[in-house]
Amino acid sequence: MKKQLFIFSMSLLVCLAVFSSNVYAACTSNSCYGQIERLYISGGTLYISTDGDESLLDCTSPASVYVTLTTDNPNFKNYYAMMLTSMSLNNNIGLRIENGSSRCSVVYTYMDNNTN
Question: Is residue 14 one of the residues assigned to a domain?
Fold first, then answer.
């Protein structure tokens, strides 16, 4: 009986460890919070895809999977540096969009310390 309980406990811990990294990945009507899956720049626009569902945002998401940031945004370099940092550290990042925008324009970004 103790062996079965031990195996069950270990299995539960493994499942929690595997799924805990995506527990907070989500998009709401005005933001996405999670890990960045893809970044690409085309025609002066940075396209950002997260592990959340961008179609839930209150904006018109390009291909229903991207939020955007134009390279002429005065804070572009700061936001882009934060996104690259979050990707390299596998940290979650928050992307607040402009509600009702035609291409889900990013208004600001934020990143939390993911150490436990």
Answer: no
